[in-house]
Amino acid sequence: MAAVLLTNFPSRLQNVYSGNENLGTTMRLSRIHSGPVLDFYTPDFTTELKLPLAGTAISAGFPSPAEEYIELAIDLNKELIKHPAATFYARVKGSSMIDAGIADGDLLIIDKALEPKDGDIAVCFIDGEFTLKRLALKEDGIYLMPANAEFKPIRITEENDFLVWGMLAYIVHKPK
Q: Which pairs from 139-147 meet CB under 8 Å and 24+ separation?
């Protein structure tokens, strides 16, 4: 298995928060599968990934009065990963989920311990291929729903080799 370092995220923060020694930590990933739709990685939880965190909430509506800035630390491994043994990363290839805010190149955090529910976004294995789609449980069966009008829903039949492999827990992407 090839080892991959996620260095873009921490290095961008180093440029913004220069001088913080905690930012030199990188998260190591090991590639476990590469396919036409998703590349899968398993995270290494042996290192902490503590990053600076503003002590107050950032307003997305009306600006709030200035408050004293208190720097805290957040460990993204602990914040984003609830089931370490069942959590994987995947990098998106394609645009079938663009209207759900998932774009080509986005990093997904997938939790295999979460139960699939109607309307959830899941990584599914169908007929030898992985795909990322929204689950639709209807009276006539299970549908895998894209979030892009250019793609058609996939109806799961008895002839399909089908498995809900894991549930989407978080999406990491760059703002436009």
A: 146/96, 146/97, 147/96, 147/97, 147/98, 147/99, 147/100, 147/102
pLDDT per position as a tens digit, 99-146: 999 999 999 999 999 999 999 999 999 999 999 999 999 999 999 999
Among 60-64, 82-86, 101-105, which is the least confidently predicted range? 60-64
- pTM across the whole model: 0.68
